[in-house]
Amino acid sequence: MAAINLGATGGAPGATASARRRGQFHSLEVAEVRPLTAESVEVTFAVPDELQDAFGYVAGQHLALRTTIDGHEMRRSYSICRPPSPGAISVAIKRDLGGRFSSWANAELRPGDRIDVMSPQGTFTSALERVDGVHVVGVAAGSGITPMMALAHEVLSRSATSTFSLLFSNRSTLDVMFIEELADLKDRYPARLALHHVLSREQRAAPLMSGRIDQDRLERILAELIRPESVDEWFLCGPFELVQLCRDVLAEQGVDPAHVRYELFTTGRPVDAGGDRGRPVQVAAGEDVWTLDFTLDGQSSQVESPVAARESILNAALRVRADVPFACAGGVCGTCRAKVVSGSVSMTENYALEPDELERGYVLTCQSHPKTEKVVVDYDV
């Protein structure tokens, strides 16, 4: 998540539905842009005193960024990469091939610039009340390391008996983001942090650590380096194929899915919503329509949509309210979450909502399509 680190979760809930808060954009000033590799930067935003509460977060959450590039509004989400610190919040942005936002951020973003930043979102977080003696494993590829940085800091700093193992896949040493920070973290916790770097295009001394992570290599790593029976909690972050591979292999080895959390970049599928208005849809006289009523910030709005257009709840809502919340429009970040008050919808994809949220009637409006003539949703609950 294009690697844009969109927050999706799976398995056990990190933050419960009741703990979620609907994101709101605030204009923040860029305090620092620090190169990480030739293709990635760390961007730090200054958080003024009056917004400290709005930007409080826990390790593993992400930020949605919004700006206008060449006359087009663009939104992308990136994981927070630093432990909570008053007055600042940081994300890492890796340049994607053809990625307009990530390329712009790497080439043109400068200290003093201002960007709309949404308050922290996501449930890719540790819900462990105690971490004494706990073994946590992170599996990441490329920019999937971003949330792992904050998670590793949290787990290791909270208890003198916790351990963290990181399996980190990259093409080469030059592509490793946060390589110095990881080395510093290892120096600080030499006995409790295990780093396993896997390089797909660079030969390493250990053959097991050289090559792409496929099913065979992952099974060997779990047999020789990270024994599943020793692990209390798993965090997976990377492209869909790697995350799904890890989930499948862990399930085959008897790991309880309730202890496996994951975050995706993107699913790689095209999305409908664009900019702040959604794709254009016109209602012709006499054609069948469905009606959407929705509440946002205490204000009710209504829009009709042609049945034949097959547009999503989000797209329809954006045509009458530019402030409807969304970031990825791909079913992975959860920003467009709302509760169905009446009517019925079907969701195409869901990589963001927990089972308890689904039971309570929450949906991802970017992936939801009406099954009844009228649908009523509430973004405020």
From TrEMBL:
| Start and end residues of each FAD-binding FR-type domain | 23-127
The record ties this protein, via PROSITE patterns, to: 2FE2S_FER_1 (PS00197), 2FE2S_FER_2 (PS51085), FAD_FR (PS51384)
- One function term, GO molecular function aspect: oxidoreductase activity
Q: Which Gene3D superfamilies match?
A: 3.10.20.30, Nucleotide-binding domain of ferredoxin-NADP reductase (FNR) module, Translation factors
Q: Does the keyword Oxidoreductase apply?
A: yes
PANTHER family registered for this protein in UniProt: 1,2-PHENYLACETYL-COA EPOXIDASE, SUBUNIT E (PTHR47354:SF8), NADH OXIDOREDUCTASE HCR (PTHR47354)
- Protein known as: Phenylacetic acid degradation protein
